[in-house]
Amino acid sequence: MDELIPFGSPVYGLVLACLLFARGMDFLSTWIASPNLKLEANPIARKLGWKASIGLNVALCFGFAAWPLPAVIIITSSLLVAARNFQSAWLMRLLGEDEYRCWIRDRLSEVGLGLYLFCLISQTILIGSVGGALMYFSDWHLIPFGVGTGIITYAVAILVFTLLSLSRLRKAAD
Fold first, then answer.
1. 19, 59, 147, 162 — which has fewest CB within 10 A?
2. Is residue 145 part of a domain?
3. CA distance 73 to 153
4. Is residue 77 part of a domain?
């Protein structure tokens, strides 16, 4: 799992293509959902903006394409994030970024913070347990171990970035 893939080799090209596709889907889903990045949960991506984020991600893809385990983790977590974004992107686009944020804030005030956090943490644990099981039973094979780690990375990212968004929503409401 620690061996590097030679730059320019067919395997490097395949891994690079997979990384570019996965990161591209994350960007596409984010652009559909939040073209002005007002709903972007990652504060670094929001601060960098589209052009700098795309450039940085392309450069990172070229670097990580030589390193198999992180590449598989990034591909897995990026595709899962994109899928999650696409799930609600239509509603975000329909309502608009500001209106969607207000709508979510209003729904959260109706349901209560405790239930919301319980559901978020439960989701994280359930998704993470699938990744953990995949890692545990992978027998240290690169792909299942990397996919399992990517699933856990996705679960943690959802928890962290959702909590960051929740914090921003609550501050804006005050």
1. 59
2. yes
3. 8
4. yes
Written as six digits, the tokens of 91 are 């509603």
What is the residue-level pLDDT of the chain in tens, covering all 174 positions? 679 999 999 999 999 999 999 999 999 999 999 999 999 999 999 999 999 999 999 999 999 999 999 999 999 999 999 999 999 999 999 999 999 999 999 999 999 899 999 999 999 999 999 999 999 999 999 999 999 999 999 999 999 999 999 998 888 877
Give the separation between CA 122 and CA 104, rounded to whole angstroms. 19
Residue type, 84: R
On whether residue 3 sits in a domain, the answer given is: no
The two three-digit tokens of residue 36, written as one number? 């002005």
Domain residues for the domain of 70 are 10-173
Residues 116, 113: Cα–Cα separation, whole Å: 5
pTM over cut 0.85: yes
- How many angstroms separate the CA atoms of 124 and 109, rounded? 22
Query: What is the DSSP secondary structure assignment for residue 42, as one 8-state letter?
Result: -
DSSP state of 7: T
How many domains does one find in the chain? 1
